[in-house]
């Protein structure tokens, strides 16, 4: 230390100055308090950002979406933005909107205004001759009635957007579309790209191409099936009627009215003593949509008569003779029957399958003569991979 001329005190260059800081615990309390205050002050901004993100990416229609006339600006902008991100609509496209009462919604659409989309309203299509062939890049149509007109005005490579529930009737003769987008809002929205000019086919290849289109939509819907059980349920649970009502049925997943099929068929492959209860279950629980189903029973021979379950009728041959690819077929069958159908490639004739797989732990009792349960799960997985809406059946 040294005294300065002005009476102050200075420090030599080798002197250390030590300052005592507050306790570290006090500093932690102070820093956390400051952070909390900043977070509280920014909450309104965070809330507005989250609200904006929700409105643009997760907007959903009301759960009761039976009224397909409900479309507002938020839904339309969210859908169009999603399609743009998928590369299905782009700046400068010419779009046709076939939907009554949508004019005001389009006028307020931020997406359409920002992307210079050339718009044409087709709410009143009384003057269809005024619309030239292949004149639109994008067609938005709910409640499609005249698919021939829409196909005529849509360019090759253009996109048709509609509800999944409109597809069975609207595209039953069209094979020149491919599904590129499926997303569930309140109803399920599907976008199809026109791959080539329409060719009206009247032979079996037309049905095959149509079925390929329907298969893509169906595979996407199969994600909504109930979870597979990784171990067999207890006997008291498996035999309860409540357990058999837990299925997520295919018509519900597809929002399918079942009107667009030439026939609807239910086939029960079971023992004589089981057929009445199976038919009663089907009539009571399956969502037939008030459509007539033809029902058939293919009888199995009990194991006391044969070492393995056998059929009085060959199921694969029966299917080939009695049902077609474009018909809606529901079946309940045992694993051995299904494996044979898979080998003979007749399983593709079945849209929805209730699979009964007798296994070594059936009803909680080990039976060495039965197959291992993992084999049942493997068969279930193969069927799902083939696009079959398969459910586990217990009795």
From TrEMBL:
<feature type="domain" description="DUF7870">
    <location>
        <begin position="222"/>
        <end position="394"/>
    </location>
</feature>
<protein>
    <recommendedName>
        <fullName>DUF7870 domain-containing protein</fullName>
    </recommendedName>
</protein>
<dbReference type="InterPro" id="IPR057192">
    <property type="entry name" value="DUF7870"/>
</dbReference>
<dbReference type="Pfam" id="PF25276">
    <property type="entry name" value="DUF7870"/>
</dbReference>
């Amino acid at each position: 230390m040294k005294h300065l001329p002005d009476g102050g005190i200075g420090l030599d260059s080798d002197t250390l100055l030590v300052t005592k800081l507050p306790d570290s615990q006090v500093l932690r309390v102070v820093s956390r308090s400051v952070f909390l205050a900043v977070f509280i002050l920014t909450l309104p901004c965070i809330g507005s950002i989250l609200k904006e993100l929700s409105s643009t990416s997760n907007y959903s229609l009301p759960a009761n979406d039976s009224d397909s006339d409900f479309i507002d600006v938020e839904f339309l902008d969210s859908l169009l933005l999603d399609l743009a991100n998928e590369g299905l609509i782009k700046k400068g496209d010419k779009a046709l909107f076939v939907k009554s009462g949508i004019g005001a919604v389009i006028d307020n659409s931020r997406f359409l205004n920002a992307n210079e989309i050339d718009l044409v309203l087709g709410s009143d299509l009384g003057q269809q001759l005024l619309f030239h062939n292949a004149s639109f890049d994008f067609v938005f149509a709910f409640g499609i009635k005249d698919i021939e007109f829409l196909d005529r005005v849509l360019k090759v490579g253009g996109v048709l957007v509609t509800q999944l529930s409109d597809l069975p009737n609207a595209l039953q003769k069209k094979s020149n579309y491919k599904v590129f987008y499926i997303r569930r809002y309140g109803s399920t929205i599907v976008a199809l790209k026109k791959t080539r000019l329409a060719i009206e086919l009247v032979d079996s290849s037309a049905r095959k191409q149509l079925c390929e289109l329907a298969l893509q939509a169906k595979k996407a819907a199969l994600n909504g099936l109930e979870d597979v059980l990784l171990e067999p349920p207890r006997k008291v649970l498996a035999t309860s009627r409540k357990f058999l009502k837990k299925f997520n049925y295919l018509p519900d997943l597809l929002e399918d009215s079942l009107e667009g099929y030439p026939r609807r068929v239910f086939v029960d492959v079971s023992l004589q003593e089981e057929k009445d209860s199976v038919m009663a279950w089907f009539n009571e629980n399956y969502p037939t949509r008030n459509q007539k189903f033809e029902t058939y029973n293919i009888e199995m021979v009990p194991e006391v008569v044969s070492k393995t379950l056998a059929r009085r009728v060959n199921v694969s041959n029966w299917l080939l003779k009695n049902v077609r690819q474009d018909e809606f077929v529901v079946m309940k069958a045992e694993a051995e029957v299904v494996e044979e159908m898979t080998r003979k490639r007749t399983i593709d004739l079945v849209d929805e399958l209730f699979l009964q797989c007798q296994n070594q732990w059936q009803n909680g009792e080990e039976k060495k003569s039965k197959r291992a349960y993992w084999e049942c799960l493997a068969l279930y997985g193969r069927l799902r991979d083939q696009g079959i809406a398969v459910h586990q059946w217990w009795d």
